[in-house]
Amino acid sequence: MRIRFFGTGTSHGVPVIGCRCPVCTSRDPRNKRNRTGVWLSDDGHSIALDVSVDFRQGALRHGMDRLDAALITHGHSDHIGGLDDLRIFAQVSGKATVLYGMPQTFAEIRERFAYAFAPPREYGGGTPQYDLRPADGPFSLPASGPSATGNWKVTPLPVLHGPEPILGYRVDDFAFITDVTEIPDSTIALLKGVKILALDCLRDKPHSTHLHFDKAVEYAQRIGAEKTYFIHMTHELEHVATEARLPPQIRLAYDGLELEI
Q1: pLDDT in tens, 183-217
Q2: 2-260: CATH, from 3.90.1150.10, 1.10.486.10, 3.40.50.10860, 3.60.15.10
Q3: In angstroms, what CA-CA distances link 49 with 3, 35, 41, 134, 199?
Q4: Which of 3, 33, 224, 229 has the most other CB atoms within 10 Å of its CB?
């Protein structure tokens, strides 16, 4: 499994518009953060985890040429704002793009992208086509292509984003949990044996709807992945200085980071 981080930033991205802080003006490319999203692939699978407004940039940077499905954590703008860019995959394949998520997430997608669910009309660039499937329990994603073999097991991970229930996802030995304040014990049990974890870490100070640094470290150590990478970071976390405060098994993800399991 190849893991590519399309974005690692919060809803504002980094640099933040109009900000001249040291992180926003940093020359270290690891401090430039598009909105959070990940691409998982192997010879027979291609899956997006969330589809931000910056999805297109990541897809072009990493050479994505097909997409089997997108796993959507929740319906906030920085996690679904790029869904219109998935229409190219339906146009090329002739099949609707499969989206997995919660009913509330689908309601927000239907409202935001109502034109994709309306009766067919003639639009210059075409409209996206979605196949909405509930992520209400573990499921398998079969490999595609004539020579592809094997299935990926996907396990939805219920978590809380402030008071709002949303999903993380485990795909085989990789797990993705963004925008979270509480990970229930039952979800932590689903993470046993995970090798790589991408985990929300907004900033140093506590926040009402995200993990802050100390709490993110606490959860990372409790889950015990072989390697944890923090995501969804604001401009308050400078890459080098923040990593210096972390144990070696916890690092900061950055845009363009590529890993393999």
Answers
A1: 999 999 999 999 999 999 999 999 999 999 999 99
A2: 3.60.15.10
A3: 10, 12, 11, 15, 13
A4: 33
